[in-house]
């Protein structure tokens, strides 16, 4: 019997850790899982252990020489010069012990989620340990060693013959996934992100639309710094609906970075928890409208791991399982008491953010208008194709 949704998780996923002071810290997985456990939103039936991806599966996207370099790095036998050739040993993506094994488990978690959905064992599946969207064929980048989303998309194409819509709401552009499938007409990538004028990786311009047979199947909505909820959601919801209607996917894979929030230390957007409540709601609706509900979710960025990530990521699971009524209650005191001693900031007590969390943004109207024009440019090709399609 198909279960409504599957939550792919294991404490072993926390082994993907560069250092104690690195901003990417998968302790946020434990914080999120524990929050869901304390509100009774997960149980033994819904939690599925991730498998480890094989070298052959990782090689669906990554060069074998790169995979061997990652293994050598994790075993302490990779020279600094060779490491630099592969984007390893940098400030962003340092080498750490057993890094191949840790990264392969994150990839395997996303593949576990894929198989559950594509084989009809679960309607939706969530692997928050995944979402490492900056990894390239032969290079690590931006905290990402293996690109689990790209591997999962190629896996779905080969094993299930699927047309895949990839939707990325991380504040950083999903460059690794986009360029892996830039000329592929069976994969459509949609990324709503902070403009690359201010932020890594500097890509994701509105005019990046794909190439060759894939032209028109890369959709980028680069929004301005300090964008707030209303403008973000207008751009995201319109882009998602129109892109899905145009592409008609068999399955949707969403990357759910939580780093567009105002509190995030690495970005410049002004999103609150109200937007993170709506992001999965729109994805859920579109998944049922266009692809029989097939929806796979992964994590991504999110560097305020105490106040933001657990709430934002828990909301995805609550939406997947139709338990959003739990958002009307305060956060459980048992969860706050369990974690607050380790937190450098006071933990929230509600699902929502406080009013007047940040000062009034004087350029609000200008930013909103600018984002609206960007959206029109981003969707111009799709709208033109739809208008000229024979009735």
From TrEMBL:
Q: Which CDD domains match?
A: HDAC_AcuC_like
Q: In which pathway does it act?
A: Ketone degradation; acetoin degradation
UniProt keyword rRNA-binding, yes or no? no
Family annotation (Pfam families) = Hist_deacetyl (PF00850)
Under InterPro entries, the record lists: AcuC, HDACs, His_deacetylse_dom, His_deacetylse_dom_sf, Ureohydrolase_dom_sf
Q: Does the keyword Transmembrane helix apply?
A: no
Q: Which UniProt keywords apply?
A: Acetoin catabolism
Q: Domain (Histone deacetylase): give its ranges.
A: 22-318
Q: Which family does it belong to?
A: Belongs to the histone deacetylase family.
UniProt xrefs under PANTHER family: HISTONE DEACETYLASE HDAC1 (PTHR10625:SF10), HISTONE DEACETYLASE HDAC1-RELATED (PTHR10625)
- Name of the protein described by the UniProt record: Acetoin utilization protein AcuC
Q: Which organism is it from?
A: Salibacterium lacus
